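=== Structure Prediction Worksheet ===
Name of assembly: unnamed complex
Input type: mixed (protein and possibly other molecules)
Chain count: two
Listed entries:
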Amino acid sequence: MELDNTRITIRERGLLDTMDLSLHVLREFVQPVFWLTLVAAIPLGILNHWLLGWMVDPLVFDYTEYRLYEWSAADWPKRIYYMVPWRYMFDMALLMFIEAQLASIFVTAYLGEAVFMQQPTLRQVVQTVFKHSPGLILCQLLIRGILPAWILVAMMDRYGDNVGIEVFLWLLAAYSALFRALRPYINEIILLEKNPIRARRANELSINKRSHHLHGSSAGDLFGRWMGSALMASSLLVLIVAALYMGVGVLIGLYEITWYFAVFIYPAAFWVVIAFYSVVRYLDYLDLRIRYEGWEVELLMRAEAAKMVGKAW
Amino acid sequence: MAKPDKLDSTIHVVTPENIGFEYRLAGPFRRLPAFLIDFAIIAAINTAVMFVIGLTVTWVSGGLATFTILVIWFGVFWFFGGMCETMLNGQTPGKWLLGMRTLTYEGQPISALQAIFRNLMRAADLLMPLLGLVVMMFNRRFQRLGDLVSGTIVVVEERHWLTGVAKLDDPRAIQLAAFLPPNYVVSRSLAKALATYVERRKFFSPPRRKEVAKHLAEPLLAKFGLPPDTSYDLLLCSLFYRTFIADRGDDEMQLEAARKQNPFAGVQVPGAYGQPYPYPQPYGVPPGYPYGGYGQPGYGQPIYVQPGYGQPTYGQPYQPYGQFPPPVPAPMPLAQETMAGITFDPPPAK
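=== Predicted Assembly ===
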């Protein structure tokens, strides 16, 4: 690997610059990013549908009765049952928000290699991810609340209002958001920097310590960036959902939330945003390392040292 | 296999005069705040128009007031951007605030027609925003539909900091430079790496400097035969000093020596190199102020002989690059006066 031979120009960038560059990167690596997002999206999508799909099951929910414009104001408190599609969309949004970082592990692992002119295969990327699965399970599934979210959603009663569980899910999403705002680059630390869960030698950095070093000094900056990213991501999501809704309406003349829309199109909009933000987050990670750690300088130093001793890293 | 281009949001533009410029392109996300600012201004103007006309023309005729408001709204909505970009040389208030400018493909200012047309086409982008985003994504120049139609690009106007040669604030680096092998030739890529390191090191903490410098400093220490406990950071700084600052002084010394060996040095040609101008000087320059000649004190500057340098050494043989003896190091700040055992790292905290 030639460390000074990068696919992306290494320099400092702002959030908006990074997002613009992400479009270039996405265009360049559109196929691997698409397939690797699918690798994560298919199992997670099936799981999410198993957990929440009953809400919009045609056997449970009668779409012919679902006409919002026919309701009077007095009906709203009584007919909470018929709010199901909206509750499904809300719960699905929370669940996918909590899962978003987990869904981007494959893209992160790929980009980490691709930036250095490597072309890892799908199999190699999946192998890399599985090699670091203990760290991912600990940090993503347990600490960042993905497993508790799945358990909570699985506990929902199909015939109850589930308001209590939804409140807990909301709190869990807030907890996850706080973690992601202040410690956003955990995937990069686990998959690219390859830090162990527990340090075995004195000069070795564990995941926790490395995360503290990387994120600790720039918490305010990271929070600001997260706010900006969240705003942009929400706008992008609304844009895509609206465009798909209108697109379906124009194509088949049905301007309603159907089962197909709820089960396929709505989550697909989330996966598109998640894929895009996997790239944005990776570029943000590079930017943070450039600004606070002089990563581009370190790459130059290592490349020169490699030339000097006559071997490549 | 051809090396793929590096991904960056920059573009190289060659003007019709065959002058190349590198511009940083403004993508959709960078443009969005500027658009929102312009949109807010348009909304404010339209609201103000509504109030002013509502309070004045309505007294004459309600229909006339509505007609006037609608006409002005139409004009402001469709032509505000175009007018601004025409009059402000490719900028709207939003672009001006955020440092962006619209240019042609060749980096030239846009014409009024281009400005108005690209702003009229904004409606197409706003009607299908996702399509607009996809068009910009699959376009190397981040052009929206309006830009494609009118042949324009939006660039970021940046102020570059021309820092020049980085300053070294640690005198120990200059002292250490005296111990570096004088015949060591720094390659172009190494010189670039050293310059980058010295430029950026001031932003790093001391442990991080050590961490970054370690990769290159370790093989350099082995190569130079310096003690392994020499500070990595100082070593790179001293090599930078040797490469960019001290050697530049050497070059000037070599130039001076070559100048002294000039076979035409003794030939009295009026006004020639190194000869005082024999004719009466304009503006009454006093005799102590020689005029002309490369390497001589400039016009209007007094001759200054440095007291410690003694007589000028005419006729010294030319010495090739790197063969000058290194400057005598100043007394070390530490007790030891040899390299053995000197640690340039700050003493450990007790």
